[in-house]
Amino acid sequence: MSPQIIESHNIEKNLKVRCEVRCRIPTKDKGEFYVHLYTNNLNNKKHLAIVAGPYIYSKSLNEVRENDTDEKRMIRGATIKPNITLPLKSLDKVNGISNIQKINETVFSNNNINKITDLEHKIPLVRIHSECFTSETIFSCRCDCAEQLDRSMKQIQNYGNGVVVYLRQEGRNIGLLNKMMAYNLQDHGYDTVEANVKLNQPVDGRNYTIAARILEDLQIDTIRLLTNNPDKIEQLSSLGINIVERIPMIPSIWENKHINCNHQTQYLSSDSNSNCSNDLDYDMNNILNESEVESEHSKLTDLEKYLQTKVESMNHDIPLPDYLIHTHSHNN
Ligand SMILES: Nc1nc2c(ncn2[C@@H]2O[C@H](COP(=O)(O)OP(=O)(O)OP(=O)(O)O)[C@@H](O)[C@H]2O)c(=O)[nH]1
Predict the structure, then answer these.
(1) Hey, where are the domains in the chain?
(2) ipTM
(3) How many helices (H) and strands (E) in the chain?
(4) What CATH code is assigned to 3-169+206-249?
(5) Burial letters 120-133, b for 16+ CB under 10 A, else e
(6) CA torsion, points 46, 52, 58, 64, in degrees to nearest 10?
(7) Nearest to 205 by CA among 40, 2, 18, 44
(8) Is 174's C-beta closer than 6 angstroms to any atom of ligand 1?
(9) Which residue has its alpha carbon closest to ligand 1 atom 24?
(10) Where are the alpha helices (DSSP H) in the chain?
(11) What CA–CA distance (Å, rounded) separates 194 from 199?
């Protein structure tokens, strides 16, 4: 067994989480959430659960602690009535939802989220999100992480019942220092996968056991999951989370882009000065030779190159828009 597999087995066996505090966080444009802060017995990282709706409660937060008082419970955000349990668990068994074996792949627009029945509504909508300081705090346009966080919080709030589990696994768990070195390599032609490899780091060093334990603590065993990442689905399923639906996350710069081989296709953004924008104009009728492909690829924004690599090299399960199919990344 590789050291990585041994480590992940150890994590799975020994990991325990505890919710230390829960507080209300109103947001500018996404409504109100209850943020739960978790400690664990393996390291000092403080993972978070950002909860929407009135149905989700933490077991560990609400259980009675040594020398507990009403005031202590109020300060940590626990219910004053101890040991509250809600009937969310095993809804599938009670109502026969376990028949849903296949993971449906539905583009969940805000409209059809509203149309689901009350019963289905109880299955939480979940995003397992990994920390990205560069995009979420200092507005980097190299990746779409901040957009994914923003959109998933909005979708979950609109749905009325769900959680973003926010994992402190910066840079797919290689840490900020390595990620910043990877960015320098990416500025010299490496893609996001090759850069990690060059630094002797795993391409994706994340482990989702902590997320599964947090969901367990929140008394959630059946979910709808917002993701494009098949590895996340596989790991969570093997950790006992029943995923009844996979909801893709289409990056906003790829929305409304489609195949139209008879016309010159234009993908002009309204903000052509922004590095995040997609201001390229391709003629799909042209068959490009190798050096033209190389040259077209070099015109892509950092974000486009990143998204393209996620689909082409990391198996992310979303269709590549036409104009990118015609500009394969250099390592393909
Ligand atoms: N090493 C490295 N990490 C990155 C880079 N860009 C973003 N990240 C990290 O990638 C993580 C997010 O992973 P993504 O691959 O974007 O998305 P995902 O969570 O795997 O998949 P989805 O569920 O579909 O969003 C965060 O921890 C980011 O800090 C990069 O260029 N290099």
Answers:
(1) 3-169+206-249, 253-325
(2) 0.97
(3) 16, 10
(4) 3.40.50.10990
(5) ebbbbbbbbbbbbe
(6) 100
(7) 2
(8) yes
(9) 228
(10) 3-14, 59-62, 70-76, 91-95, 110-115, 118-121, 133-136, 145-159, 170-173, 175-186, 192-198, 209-217, 230-238, 290-298, 302-313, 322-325
(11) 9
Q: What is the signed CA dihedral for 36, 248, 227, 317, rounded to 10 degrees?
A: -170
CB under 8 Å to 99, separation ≥6 — which residues? none
Distance 130 CA to ligand 1 centre (A): 7
- Report yes or no: 133 and 177 within 8 Å, Cβ to Cβ: no
Determine how β-strand 162-167 pairs with β-strand 222-226: unpaired
Spacing, Cα 306 to ligand 1 middle (Å): 9
Give residue 8's pLDDT. Answer: 65
Pocket mutation for ligand 1, best pick of 45, 137, 143 (most atoms within 8 Å of C-beta)? 143
pLDDT of residue 316: 92
How far lies 312's CA from each of 82, 251, 328, in Å?
50, 15, 9
Please name the residue whose Cα sits nearest to atom 21 of ligand 1: 229
CA angle (319 as vertex; 317, 324 as ends), nearest 5:
125
Residue located nearest, by CA, to atom 9 of ligand 1? 171
Strands 222-226 and 125-130: parallel
Positions annotated as catalytic residues are: 204, 206
Give CA–CA dist 170/55, Å, rounded: 29
Residue 72 CA to ligand 1 centre (angstroms): 38
Rounded distance between C-alpha atoms, residue 22 and residue 36, angstroms: 4
Q: Which residues of the chain have pLDDT under 70?
A: 1-11, 82-121, 256-296, 326-332
